[in-house]
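Researcher: We're teaching a course module on how sequence relates to structure. For the next exercise, students receive a sequence and then see the predicted structure as tokens, so they can try to spot secondary structure elements on their own. Here is the exercise chain.
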Amino acid sequence: MTTATVTAAGPLSVSQRLLLGVLFLVLGAVFVAGTGFAGDYRAHNGAHDTRHAMGFPCH
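Model: And here is the predicted structure for the students to work with:
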């Protein structure tokens, strides 16, 4: 029987951190926009109320 070992990766380079930051910003924008334009009124209202609670006017 073999066991798998997990090793910690070293610190990320600046370009890797920048890429991850951009990817997470895009993913967050997709989540916010996707729920804002969702056909289900509950998802839309939840995103709408969250935007207002965070101080972002949307209308």
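Model: If you want an answer key for the exercise: The first helix runs from residue 14 to 36. Residues 1 and 47 are 49 Å apart (CA to CA).
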